[in-house]
Amino acid sequence: MGGGTGFAYHGILPGATGGSQAICPHSSEMTTVRLNATAWAQPASQNASRLAGLLIHEYAHNAEARVHLRAGRPSTSAWFLSEAWATLAEETAARLASGQAEGAVQSKVTAQMPNPGSVFLGLWGKQEAAGPWQVAGRYTVSAQMLMFLRELKGEVSAAPRTQTTFHQQIYAEPRDWTDHKSAVPALAASVGLTHAELVDRHALAAVTAGLLPENVIRERNLPSFRSWNPRELAVSDGPLNPSFNGRLSRTRNEFVDQWVPDGGYAAIYMMADANRGISLASIQPPDPSGIVRLTRLR
Ligand SMILES: [Zn+2]
């Protein structure tokens, strides 16, 4: 196989035998996962945690294919959505394996447990080229947005439960889930928000992730992530690390181009520096469909 590290049969490829019993009553409905031999032969891939995460990811695709095929739909949803769901299966498995139903920290996910996937890679505006509805963001910002949506729906804990899940709720809706233009507003509406409101709340949660005290988040009802606690990550990989590439100096002039895709966000951070102030100027007016926000974190 070509790019990528793994692949799950959905039952629609030539020669695939994993089709649904909704199509053929004799189907075994067995999940088949094909691994990329070239990618997995690399030293960096000799990693059980990564392999476990990948297998969970591919099994999630297969489970989703069953849901769609049984409803008489194509076996996959819009590209951003199916990859985002499969990535959420990875992060949920990592929380379950590490006994952290919610508010999980990554350092407790050891090398003996499935890797939580790439759900945090787009935090703090570090992946500004990738929006939640773009193909480039499907494993990162899209997954993060979906996790945020799921939390807004009240589904925070990874602990097994008997209620209908967010996944089951949205896919019970008889719509064409391959059409991303209608899927996005439908997802936002499922939590009572417009597309713009969802994007705005998600952006605020993402750019402040791990940077605000819990009591401030609670008292001011600020959007935040609950499944994971990104505080530790903000120190190692985020704005609290002095070498974070989104931090600007207060002692010299800097010009920054900010490119934001549809539904996405970008951020720059200026840390407190004694009594030094800042002066900001927008050289080119922002796109009127966008929102520019200056947020003081403390
Ligand atoms: Zn995938």
Average pLDDT, to the nearest integer? 85
From the alpha carbons, calculate the radius of gyration and give it in angstroms.
20 Å
Q: Number of helix segments?
A: 9
Structural class: mainly alpha
- Quaternary arrangement of the chains shown? single chain
Please provide a brief summary of the model.
With 298 residues, the protein is mainly α. 33% of the residues lie in helices and 3% in strands.
Topology record:
Layout: E1 6-8, E2 33-35, H1 37-40, H2 48-70, H3 79-97, H4 141-152, H5 166-171, H6 180-189, H7 195-207, H8 214-219, H9 231-236, E3 247-248, E4 269-270
Parallel strand pairs: 3-4
Antiparallel strand pairs: 1-2
The chain binds zinc ion.
Residues 57, 61, 83, 86 line the site of zinc ion (ZN).
Tell me about this structure.
This protein is mostly helical. It has a domain at 6-194. The protein has helices at 37-40, 48-70, 79-97, 141-152, 166-171, 180-189, 195-207, 214-219, 231-236, and strands spanning 6-8, 33-35, 247-248, 269-270. The strands form two sheets. Strands 1-2 form a two-stranded antiparallel ribbon. A two-stranded parallel sheet has the order 3-4. Helix 2 packs across helix 3, helix 3 crosses helix 4 (141-152) and helix 4 crosses helix 7. The longest helix has 23 residues, at 48-70. The protein is globular, with a radius of gyration of 20 Å. The termini are far apart.
